[in-house]
Specification:
mainly beta, seven-stranded mixed sheet, globular
Length: 291
């Protein structure tokens, strides 16, 4: 009897260990080196159009982000055309990195140039084409809209350019980082385009030498940083004060931060050391039955 009890206990312990091994801990933040990523099949892909996921759909981590469905790079080859798409409860953001193209918005067409950005609301059928002889590269973001959010009829297409925006400080952040506020909520008036439902802000940060975006967190929002230029240190949780986890960040590095994760950036202190980060912050609905 004692031998049987011992064997049963050992089996239970072994089973518990196997279950613990199968269950992975949910990450507080994620890091991707964009230069190492490859294109992935998606509804945006075609023979002339490649989508490379950074976070969200197509990425190896399927549990995060929460509200951001897609954050990645879209490459439209010379004379290429991406399939037309429309999402009933998603909003999309585009930023042109390189090249020229055309955004087809329902029956309307609008030329796209480097540093152009725009917002496409839910239900709007749209696509991107590239009539030029050079590749067109864009950052594309798709964000989910909660089912209980009222959706208004689509608004008029607005395409703006980063050159139109004046750099500014933001209350609560150091003056060593200047912001270009691109796209924000439809209920606000701070950004160049105020049309979003779930997007809290889509913005560009420009850091002076030794500049910093002091470590902070957002209780009801997730955030993504994509380093466009320069290098420094990203604060991504870690330690009792959240700033002990400093990680190297160079152009092409992308970081995702879940709600309540400490996030920040420290630029290099050498003379002339500038850094630019494209950032997205999206609201995350609170769970109806929190644990």
């Amino acid at each position: 009897m004692k031998k049987f009890t011992f064997l049963l206990l050992m089996l239970l312990m072994l089973q518990a260990g196997l279950i613990a091994q199968e269950r992975s801990v949910e990450p507080s933040w994620l890091h991707r080196d964009v230069s190492a990523l490859r294109e992935h099949s998606s509804d945006l892909g075609s023979s002339g159009c490649d989508y490379t996921p950074i976070f969200g759909e197509g990425d190896e981590e399927s549990r995060f982000p929460l509200s951001v469905g897609r954050f990645g790079e879209l490459t439209v080859h010379p004379h290429g055309v991406c399939p037309a798409v429309a999402y009933p409860r998603r909003e999309e953001l585009y930023l042109v990195r390189d090249g020229n193209g055309v955004l087809h918005y329902e029956q309307e067409s609008h030329a796209l140039a480097p540093n152009d950005f725009t917002y496409v609301g839910p239900t709007v059928r749209h696509s991107i084409s590239n009539p030029s002889n050079q590749s067109l590269r864009l950052v594309v973001v798709s964000v989910k809209i909660p089912s209980d959010t009222f959706i208004a009829p689509p608004g008029k297409l607005v395409v703006a350019n980063l050159s139109e925006l004046k750099e500014q400080t933001v209350e609560g952040h150091p003056k060593s980082v200047l912001y270009k506020l691109m796209i924000g909520p439809r209920t606000a008036a701070r950004d160049r385009i105020n049309a979003a439902y779930t997007v809290a802000d889509f913005f560009l940060m420009d850091f002076a030498p030794a500049g910093t975006n002091l470590p902070h967190h957002h209780e009801t929002a997730e955030e993504i940083y994509l380093v466009l230029d320069g290098e420094g240190k990203i604060a991504a949780g870690g330690g009792m004060d959240g700033v002990e986890g400093l990680h190297s960040a160079k152009a092409g590095d992308a970081y995702y931060f879940r709600p309540n994760c400490t996030v920040g950036f420290y630029n290099q202190s050498t003379a002339g050391a500038k850094a630019q980060i494209l950032a997205l912050r999206a609201f995350v609905p609170l769970p109806k039955n929190p644990d």
